[in-house]
Amino acid sequence: MTTRILIAVTNTDRFATRPTHRTGLWLSELTHATDVFEERGFEYTLISPAGGRSPLEPRSLRFPLMDASARRWHRDPWRMARLESTLAADEVDSAGYDGIYFTGGHGVMFDFPSSTGLQRLTGEIADRGGAVGAICHGYCGLLETTRPDGSPLLAGRRITGFSWNEEILAGISRIAPYDVEQRAKDLGADYSKAALPFVSNTVADGRLVTGQNPASARATAERFATLF
């Protein structure tokens, strides 16, 4: 049977902490995942907290951060149209999906943690043995998800994700709404990061796979795909 994956993207286009600062989906974190999934014959559905448009983080469209994978998507009208009509998480039935994969970009810091739809889908998929993945800031989408006993999904799990040091080096720490690395640790996650910032780092713990930053996008998607 064909493997089917939900891919979560943001609806947020500006920092609530500084409305003049634009944000959104980090495009290559989506496109490396879809490249891997398509190579393996997986089907995927784009979902978001509110449904509809997923804006693009401007930084992700600049050289050298916009790589060949992102350019191919950006130049394809059909693919770009998919980002205008994502499904709302509340309206999606997890039945029939084998995994859920969270993309990043700073927009997710604002709308992923408050999305009860994303929490429900993640919990249902994880509870029946499905795979959960997150790249970069995507792990913001796992902060509020719980197990059936009410404990945090991340408690005791080995993970990675965009680090606070990388926020500082990226010039975002002053307007970031919170320190997601610290929040994950406070939930009991066994968080680790690469020795150097902005280099590829992927952590797998059973059927949970996380990647630290955009440089980790391809490797994280490939490791996630091996779970099927």
Automatic annotation (TrEMBL):
One of its GO terms (molecular function) is glyoxalase III activity. It holds the Pfam family DJ-1_PfpI. The keyword Lyase applies. The keyword Nucleotide-binding does not apply. GO terms for biological process: methylglyoxal catabolic process to D-lactate via S-lactoyl-glutathione. Belongs to the peptidase C56 family. HSP31-like subfamily. This is Type 1 glutamine amidotransferase domain-containing protein. It comes from Leucobacter edaphi. The lineage of its organism: Bacteria, Bacillati, Actinomycetota, Actinomycetes, Micrococcales.
